[in-house]
Specification:
heterodimer; A: mainly alpha; 8 helices; 0% strand; globular; B: six-stranded antiparallel sheet; two-stranded antiparallel ribbon; 7 helices; 8 strands
Chain lengths: 174, 222
């Protein structure tokens, strides 16, 4: 192994890991919060908390779900602590956030807006499952719900999005 | 719903997690074309959902908004001494991880170099307030963020100087024993001790001169 030249900087492995995963965390926080500034705040708090708790992470392969869990908890904590008003669905749509735009794929943009308009109880588990890669068991544990309750919420979330995607919704015994 | 696994059960299971297939669902799909089609449609929808969640983050950077108490310390005269004694000398890096972490952070926030508009005093003050430090810059500040770094918020600034734009990170809680120079990937920087903390000054595609570094550091108060 060649020694690093004098004056060459060596980032710590943990810093590299955080920086690598940061985009995923920002996306995850944005879909939870539906507000960029709040998402940035949540991720900043997450990185600080992760740094302080870095000894708890024994396996770097588990870093992503570990960090996403911190993001979700920080998001929930932020609303509890600051009593932030929840984002109004119509207001979100009216924002026309350029982050929702896609290059010439109007269908994708419509889908993003439809996800934005899902109620929190449906959007949160969907984000955790599709973007976060969490299993329904993990989501149930994190949201303190039963697994059937999580499955029902995910089913209803997808059922609403099916219409946007041009599919007939499934029958739902709500 | 009855206890027998029927279409309603299948739709609920598929809609809840289209990638999961229990033995009951598999058995049902083997005999139900409608639910098989429903599953195919849902898998296709999920592929679109994954694409939808992958937002471009190009415009996500916004100034932080939270406050933390400010602390003040006088700037140690040793800073200037360290600058003078260390001029032009490549030292064996006593804090390689710190310099590396600074570089890593700046590389991942490379859009900061593209800022061209001078920030207002209130924008800069807000970022400094969040980080709990003071910085009286005589030079225009083009970018300011209170970034998470080693478990704290630190000001990450881009300052327009006579040598071009320089990145300045005010590391109130990162003590270094002496001046440290480092370079990597087109970046050249120095870490300078300032009281109980340090200041990192970096140039991209150029050098950080001691005159400018001293000027920047002289404006720092913890």
């Amino acid at each position: 192994m060649n020694p690093r030249p004098r004056g060459t900087a060596v980032p710590s492995a943990f810093t590299r890991l955080l920086e690598t995963l940061r985009p995923d965390l920002v996306r995850f926080a944005f879909w939870l919060a539906r507000d960029r500034a709040v998402a940035e705040d949540v991720v900043q708090e997450t990185l600080i908390r992760a740094w302080k708790s870095r000894d708890e992470l024994k396996d770097t392969a588990a870093a992503r779900p570990w960090l996403l869990t911190i993001v979700r908890r920080e998001h929930a904590r932020l609303y509890e602590r600051k009593r932030l008003p929840t984002v109004d669905v119509e207001q979100v749509e009216a924002l026309g956030d350029p982050a929702l735009a896609s290059d010439g794929d109007a269908g994708l943009e419509d889908l993003r807006r439809a996800i934005m308009q899902l109620p929190d109880e449906y959007r949160e588990p969907l984000v955790m499952q599709v973007l976060g890669g969490l299993s329904t068991t993990e989501i149930a544990a994190e949201l303190k719900l039963t697994q059937p309750a999580v499955l029902t919420r995910l089913f209803r979330a997808r059922n609403r999005l099916r219409v946007i995607y041009g599919l007939a919704p499934a029958e739902d015994a709500e | 719903m009855s206890n027998e696994f029927n279409c309603a059960h299948a739709r609920l299971a598929i809609g809840g997690d289209p990638h999961e297939q229990s033995p009951e669902l598999s058995a049902h799909l083997a005999t139900c074309a409608a639910c098989t089609r429903f599953r195919s449609e849902t898998l296709a929808l999920d592929a679109r959902l994954r694409a939808a969640f992958e937002l471009s983050l190009a415009e996500f950077r916004k100034p932080a908004r939270q406050a933390s108490p400010a602390r003040r310390f006088a700037l140690a005269a040793s800073v200037i001494l360290a600058l003078t004694l260390g001029a032009g000398v490549w030292l064996l890096n006593p804090q390689p991880a710190l310099a590396g972490d600074v570089l890593e952070h700046i590389k991942h926030e490379s859009a900061s170099w593209d800022a061209h508009e001078i920030l207002t005093a209130s924008q800069l003050t807000e970022v400094l307030r969040v980080a709990g430090v003071q910085f009286d810059s005589s030079m225009p500040v083009l970018y300011a963020m209170a970034c998470p770094f080693h478990g704290r918020r630190v000001p990450h600034l881009v300052v327009q100087t006579a040598d071009g734009p320089l990145t300045v990170m005010l590391l109130a809680h990162e003590k270094v024993a002496g001046r440290v120079e480092f370079a990597e990937g087109g970046y050249r920087g120095i870490l300078l001790p300032v009281g109980e903390g340090s200041v990192a000054v970096l140039a991209r595609g150029g050098d950080v001169t001691d005159v400018v570094a001293a000027k920047l550091v002289s404006g720092v108060r913890w």
